[in-house]
Amino acid sequence: MEVEVVPEGKLLQRQGRQPEAFIVVRQGVVRVQDQTTTAPDGSSASIEAGPGTLFNLSELILGLGASATVRTATPATLWVVPAEGLRDLAAKRPDLLLEVGLRLSQEMTGRVNAMTAERQEEERRQRALAPYVVAAPKRGVIGRSKYAERLRKQIVVASRDPTRRAVLVFGEPGLQKETFASLIHFGSKARTGPLVQIDCASKQGESLLAELFGRGSKEGLLYWVGDGAVMLKNIHKAAPSILFQISLLLQEGTYQPLPSNWVGNKFSSLDLPRPPQKNTARILLTASQRVPALDQLVTTIAVPPLRVRPADILDLQRWVWMRICVCAYAFPGNTEELFGLVARAATQSIAGDASTAGAKPAGGDVAGKAGAGTGSVSAQPGPIQLDKDVFWVAAKSADRFKVNLLSSLPLARGFLRGDFFPEGLNHGFTKYAFAVIVIALFVGPQDREHNVFLNFFWDWWCAARWPGVFLVYPFFGRVWCAVCPFMIYGEIVQRWRESQGAQLLKWPRDEMEKWGGWFLWGLFAAILIW
Question: What does the entry list under GO cellular component (predicted)?
C-alpha cells in the first residue's frame, strides 16, 4: 500500500476505463460523477465524498471498468493499492478480502436503505404539495410606461433579496397580482424549489393554520416546501387571529404546529404538542389593499391599475392578440411562416375594400401602410375589427367538413354585419310592433275570428317560430336571440338606468341556475292556462 498526497483537481480515474488501483480516501474531499447522478434540470451532476470512501474494489475483483469519474475537490491524502498488489493480496489472504467485501456490502446496504427512505420522503412531499403547486407564469410585466418599469424593477429587487424578506403585492382586483408575486420566486435563486398557494378567502381559522403549519404529527406546507415559497392569496381577508400568527411567523422565523384534536379525552402518543419549527420558506402575500398589521414586516409592492398607465394598454393588447389569435391554433409553420401570417393579416386589415378582408370599420381615423413590397399607403376611417379568417392557418382534420357561410355568402355577410341587423330591426321596428301586438292580445277580442293577432300569435308565432329556430340553428346558430323581443325591452331598461347613473348589479348566476328554470316554466304555464 502506498500513501499519495495529490493536489486539488487531479483526475484519479475516468468512468468506463479499467481502474489501475484500489483507492481509499484518508483525508480531503473527492468529487464523484456518474451517469446515475443528475441535477434537477436533467444534466449530469456530481457528489462529494470524504475520508473513508473506497473506490474500485469490486471493479478490480470482477474485472469491470470504473463506475464513475473521480477528481479531487481539495488537496487529499490517499491510500493506494495497485491493481496487481490487490490481486496478489486476494490470492494470499482470501479471508481478509472476504471481510473487506462484507464491510463494503454492509455499507452499500446502508446507502440503499438511505436512498429508499429519501425517495419515499420525496414521494410524500410531492403528494402533499400537488394540490397547491403554482406553475411558472406565462408572462412578465408587460408595458413600457414608467409605472411598468418601476413595477419591473421592484420585482427584480425583491427576487434578488439575499435575506428573502416577505413581500406583499397589493392592488385593485383584476390586476393578476399572483402572477407578479410568482415572478419574484421564479426570478430568484430558489426558483428550482416549489411555489405553493393558499387562498385565505376560502380557508379560515384553524383549517388555514393546519394546512400551513401542520397539525399533530401531520406536517404542513411550510415543512414540505423547504427552501421554496408559499403564497398567501387575499391575505387582507384573513381573520385577525390568522394575521397575528402570520405576523409571528414573519417576525420570529418560526411557527408552532397545531396540537392534535382530542380523541377520547387524551392525545395520541404520536400527536403530542411539538416545539416551534424553523421556517426556511419565503412568504409571498397578495391583497386588494394594504394590510397595516404587516407593513413593518414585509416589502410592499403596489401594482398600478390600467387607468393610470394607459400607455401599457397597447402592449397588453398585442400580447393578448398573439395568445388568442395565433397561439390558440395549431400553427404548422415556423418563424418565417408566422411573420408572413402577421404581414398578411395586416395587409388585409388595411386594404381598400374592408369586406374582402373580413374586416369592418368601427369609427375613428387611422392610417397604415400596406406592408413590405406594396409601396402604397392606404388610409381608412376607423380601426379594423379582424375576423379569425384573416389569421389563416392550415385546416385541421376536424374542420374539413365545416363551411363558413359568412365567407361563401357575401349577401348574408353584408346583411348580418350591416347597421340594420340587429340594431335597426330591434329598435326601429320590433320594439314598437311587439308592443302593439301584446296590447291587442290583452284588450282586443279573445277569439280568433275577430282578433287577427290571436291567429298570428298561435298559428305563426308559436307554431312556426320553434321549428324555424331548430332549422336555422345548424346554419346561423342562436341568431334568434339577437332579435328576440323579450331581450329588447330588457336592453331598453338597462340603457335607461345607465343613463341615470345607475350601476348594474352582478348577474345572480347561482340563483338563476337554481330557480330560473322553474320561473320560466311557471310563466309559460300561466300563459297557456290564461
Answer: plasma membrane
Judge if 42 and 7 occupy the same domain. yes
Classified as helix, coil or strand, 211 is: helix
* pLDDT, tens only, 178-236: 999 999 999 999 999 999 999 998 887 788 898 999 888 888 999 999 999 999 999 99
Q: Which residues of the chain have pLDDT under 70?
A: 35-45, 61-62, 96-97, 100-101, 104-105, 107-108, 111, 261-273, 323-402, 406-407, 462-464
Q: Which amino acid is at 238?
A: A
Q: b or e along 15-42 (b: 16 or more beta carbons within 10 Å of the residue's beta carbon)? A: eeeebebbbbbeebbbbbebeeeeeeee
Q: 186 and 254 share a domain? A: yes
Helix axes of 431-443 and 485-499: crossing angle, nearest 10 degrees: 110
Query: Both 430 and 394 in a single domain?
Result: no
Query: Which three cell numbers, joined as nine digits, stand for 373?
Result: 413590397
In a domain, 110, yes or no: no
- CATH number (domain holding residue 223): 3.40.50.300
Three-state SS for 360?
A: strand
Strand order in the sheet with 2-6: 2-6, 76-82, 21-27, 54-55
Q: Quick one: 458 and 505 in the same domain?
A: yes
In the numeric block, the cell 421554496 is attached to 228
Same domain for 424 and 399? no
Three cell numbers, residue 529: 292556462
- Which domain covers residue 232, as residue numbers? 133-261+274-310
Residues 499, 505, 506: CA angle, nearest 5 degrees:
135
**Which residues is 169 bridged to in the sheet?**
286, 301
Which amino acid belongs to residue 394?
A: A
Who contacts 520 (Cβ-Cβ below 8 Å, separation ≥6)?
none
DSSP alpha helix (H) spans, 33-93: 57-62, 83-92
Give the pTM: 0.50
Tally the domains of the chain: 4
